Structure prediction request, 448 residues.
Amino acid sequence: MRLRGAMRVKGREITFIFALIIAFLLLAACGNKRTARTSVAPAVAMPAARKLPPLPARPLSPKLRELRDQAQRTAASLRGLEFTGEVGMAELSGWEYGTRASEMAHVLGGDDLRALSKLASAGGVLPEGTDLASLTASFTALSAGATYSPLDKQVLIVDKFKDDSLLTHEMTHALQDQHFDLMKLLLVRPYNFDRTEAVFAVIEGDAMNVQRRMEQGDAYTRRPLEEISKQETDRFSSYRKEIGALFPPLLTETFIFRYRDGARFVESVRRSQGERGVDELFERPPLSSEQILHPEKYQKNEAPREVSLDVLEFVIAGWKNTASTPLGEIGVRGLLMAGVSEKDAVRAASGWGGDRAYLFEKDGGTPLFVWKTVWDKTADAEEFFAAYNALRRRKGTEINSQAQPDGVEQMSWREGRHVTIVRRAGDAVIVIRGAEADVNTASELTQQ
Prediction:
């Protein structure tokens, strides 16, 4: 289920899903063998499905049919699930593959994708005017490899494809879809970036687990879990230096998270609870990236803290709330990596307790970004406050810093026509970014 950009890692071609962009794209739009089960993901009202144009109908060569059949047998055997129906496979030219990606972006992206683009731009995470739908289509048009499409219920491959381990990975996605309904898992409303990333980590971690066991056999099951993380990190080293250098760390880090941390999380569950335990990850999905990064929090059902603003106060002041979502521990980490080292970002994000980012807009005005985070301890909030201000120091000029009554800390930054206020009070940190007058008004509203 991946739209991919091809690259070389240690002499082998590996293809990847493209991080946050594809997550939002798809949003809007070994034990004993077991029979199919119905997913018990939360019941939600989902947007009506829109049909895509039919794919080109052309027969597979005998070699491709053999490759497909073997991949299905391997995926079913290693995953411990039987296919409940036929999985189609369509061989496409590079142009057809890119066109299909563009069609998916337009069918599934819509208003949600545009709202996310504006939220990230208002927060200074993405350049102003970034269009994630167009970026997705452009990136995918250059891609190669294979992808399972849950809309088409087929594996799409680019002509001359012959990677058996990658095809096994995609057939694992087909198994997931047949047993657990991937679109239902991903189309939960209202949209929650953090939760969606956690679900993707299960989806990709499961398929990566099957792929690695195919490639490495029993040696993979004997590796320490930390070595599994390191193995995936090493595989992404050239990605970080090459393709990753072209995009903000928030996108690249959430992308890597799905594979590196997803593989470790799924393998930890498989070792302790077997394939039935992996099935339960789809039936009771993690609620946050924190639960993926810290599996014990998933086992203890430790949910994120609910975070909210009094939106009505902003509405009364003339703003319209046009988007909001939690970013989660992995989102905080990726955002901080734009200004501090990976080690410092990981440490500063690790005390995350909950958050929510908001986009407010007025006709003809500068968008207003308000992000409230809460932390496990005051010391964790202090560490994030310091790390976030280190990020802002790299991007703008300090206006002032001041200690306020009751231990409240506040720093202000100017970056072109934008002003950012960062305020910590106890275990909470609020970030406000926009036009100076609006930021000052919003600061007062968040203190009421």
Notes: The two ends are 46 Å apart (CA to CA).
